[in-house]
Design brief:
β21 and β22 form a beta hairpin. Among the domains are: 102 residues, Immunoglobulins (Immunoglobulin-like, Sandwich), CATH 2.60.40.10; 82 residues, Immunoglobulin-like (Sandwich). It has two helices and 29 strands. The chain is an all-beta fold and 465 residues long.
């Protein structure tokens, strides 16, 4: 706010036609076009100020899709800044499919359209024209502060960054914690509603825009179109509305395409005398629309499944995997895509692995060389749950336990209650099954058994009588 080695095994394709009940979005699928902070009147008498804000959808969005919006900053710990009085989260559940290019203008409180405020025709209003809305921005105060604020769009669980996919971020932050104008916070702590780091996975100038200033409560620029403007109380996009998705994201991410005013709020709405003349027109090839992606890691085999809702000009997929979720390599390249399809299609790929954890994503490439990524999923070996003690408490000198299948070269260690290593050894080269460790002269008490191989480790507590 402003303020390992993986060996390919089997390749299997499965094509299924059907309809979608929603799909995950990727960065840039929705963009923020601006908001007012000098607009506090409760024009529709709902008990909240009517500070307006606007977005544009740069892809078709299917019914059933859930999107979250927040004015809470993304802090130094990669969490949302929490202050229920001044920060809020709004959830939009799409009930009527949204076409690419659709613009929505809302008030801060509830995401409703402006038919009750300015005569806007239904369908040219807010999020409630195409869905249902819960929550609101701005906390209980329901305001965007003149000292700067942000709107962050994400999917996942409302109110948390854990597991979130960030779609877009917009900021007019005006604080001394910034290193200059047009940048996001990169150091220090977020201590107010005005501050925010750039959310994970977004890129300033394409999937985020920083209309920010590094002096408190200060703006710069003439406020007119064509020259970069930063830190105004009220700012709205005034650039091109026709172009490819990439061209429009670049334009929306350019501070020179915004106008600003520190006194008078803009009449944010669509058409007529409003500040956004019309919906956008997306030209060129639309990107592939992702469906669900999921996977399973079991018995040394990994299986990845993914869906597409629509394909246009698609060439092929690359399956990429990672051991740490950061550095990805191609596990399999050139998996053929459908090319053109208006139906849901499903794909699968399986391979052998001795890893206990795999991060995976799908890269889709168009015939013209453009590409997009699916979300990242995590696969964990489900055999970790089969490690168990067969006799606990231990009444003699033999500690008997099972080793999960798929483990090789397993070793064990026994620790006292205060962490002292008492005994260790190898369990042989056999794959899983029951194992025995002789406790010897270990006295009665509570202990910890740890088993591990080259990639994984599990522990269990036991009692010796």
């Amino acid at each position: 706010m402003k303020k390992w080695c993986i060996v390919p095994m089997v390749l299997l394709f499965l094509f299924i036609s059907g309809s979608s009940s929603g799909q995950p979005l990727v960065a840039g699928d929705i963009a923020v076009l601006g908001f007012n902070t000098d607009q506090s009147a409760d024009l529709d008498a709902d008990g909240f100020p009517d500070a307006r804000w606007a977005i544009v959808c740069l892809r078709d969005i299917a019914a059933g899709t859930v999107v979250h919006f927040t004015d809470a900053g993304f802090n130094e710990s990669a969490q949302f800044y929490v202050n229920a009085v001044i920060e809020g989260h709004l959830t939009w559940t799409v009930t009527t499919a949204v076409p690419a290019g659709k613009v929505f203008a809302m008030d801060c409180a509830d995401g409703s359209n402006f038919a009750d405020l300015n005569g806007a025709v239904s369908g040219n209003g807010g999020l409630t024209d195409n869905g249902t809305v819960t929550g609101h921005l701005g906390g209980t105060a329901s305001l965007f502060p003149p000292a700067g604020d942000q709107i962050i769009i994400y999917q996942g669980t409302s109110g948390t960054t854990t597991g979130a996919t960030f779609i877009y971020a917009y900021s007019t932050q005006q604080t001394l914690s910034l290193s200059g104008t047009g940048v996001w916070q990169t150091s220090g702590n977020v201590t107010s509603q005005a501050g925010s780091f750039l959310p994970t996975g977004l890129s300033n100038g394409t999937t985020a825009v920083a209309l920010t200033h590094n002096v408190n409560n200060t703006s710069s620029g003439p406020g007119t179109f064509g020259t970069a403007n930063y830190g105004f109380d009220n700012m709205i996009y005034a650039g091109i509305r026709t172009g490819t998705r990439a061209q429009l994201l670049s334009a929306i991410g350019n501070p020179a395409n915004y106008i600003g005013d520190n006194t008078n709020p803009y009449s944010i709405g669509i058409g007529g005398s409003f500040s956004i003349p019309s919906d956008f027109i997306i030209t060129g090839t639309l990107p592939l629309h992702w469906g669900e992606i999921s996977g399973e890691l079991k018995n040394g085999q990994a299986f990845i499944q993914w869906e597409t809702i629509q394909e246009r000009n698609s060439s092929h997929f690359d399956l990429e995997t990672s051991a740490d979720g950061q550095q990805f390599v191609a596990q399999r390249s050139g998996i053929p895509a459908a090319g053109y399809s208006d139906n849901k299609r499903s794909y699968q790929y399986g391979f052998s692995t001795n890893a206990s954890v795999i991060y995976a994503r799908i890269k889709q490439l168009d015939i013209d060389g453009n590409y997009s990524y699916s979300k990242i999923i995590t696969l964990k070996n489900d055999h970790t749950g089969t490690f168990r003690l067969l006799h606990n408490p231990v009444v003699n000198e033999q500690l008997v336990f099972t080793v999960p299948e798929g483990w090789r070269g397993t070793q064990y260690s026994i620790f006292s209650a205060n962490g002292l290593l008492l005994k260790s050894g190898k369990l042989g080269v056999s794959n899983g099954g029951n194992k025995t460790a002789t406790l010897g002269n270990i006295p009665a008490g509570t202990y910890q058994l740890v088993i591990f191989d080259q990639t994984q480790k599990i522990s269990r507590q036991f009692i010796k009588l």
